[in-house]
Each structure stands twice: as C-alpha cells, then as structure tokens.
Amino acid sequence: MKLLNLITLVISFCFLTSCIDKKQKLGEEIIAKIENYKKANGHLPDNLTELGVIEKDDGPIYYTKKNDTTYIVYYGAGLGESIIYNFKTKMWERDRQ
What we know:
Layout: H1 2-41, E1 62-65, E2 71-78, E3 81-86, E4 91-96
Antiparallel strand pairs: 1-2, 2-3, 3-4
C-alpha cells in the first residue's frame, strides 16, 4: 500500500510539474507579445484580446494592466497558489495565499 501511495505521489508531482512548465512557457510567449506591443504602440494593451490571445475565465494565463507602465501575468499552480511574473525583475515568483 505504501508503494502504491508513493507511485501515486510521484505521478501526481510529474503531472503537476509538466502542467506548470506548459503554463509558464505560454506565459512567457504572452509576455513577449505584451513587450512587443508596448514597443510598437507606446503603451500596454488593455487586455490579451488586443494581442490576438483569446481570454478565458478559466485561464490558463491571466493578464492585468495595473497602469500605463505596470502589468502582471500569472497562472494558478495549485490550490491557493499562483505564479506571478515580476516584470521588473523578469522573474516568476510564487504567491501563496
């Protein structure tokens, strides 16, 4: 029984890690589009639709324009946890709630 629990835990971890990697890669593609849009237009897009990205309530990637120069891109990483892109440091950071 312990072996079965361990195998289940390992498989769950691998699946979750794979999903996070895919979300982060998609997030980085969206960040590149945001930065290119900003260079071309002199301001941030109001939403992802302006970039040709279909926004969905269930994500997987979310974008919020804070003001003319500040934005956040984030995705869910599990129950009560988000991964947020810090555009100042150009790094992904965990946010546990």
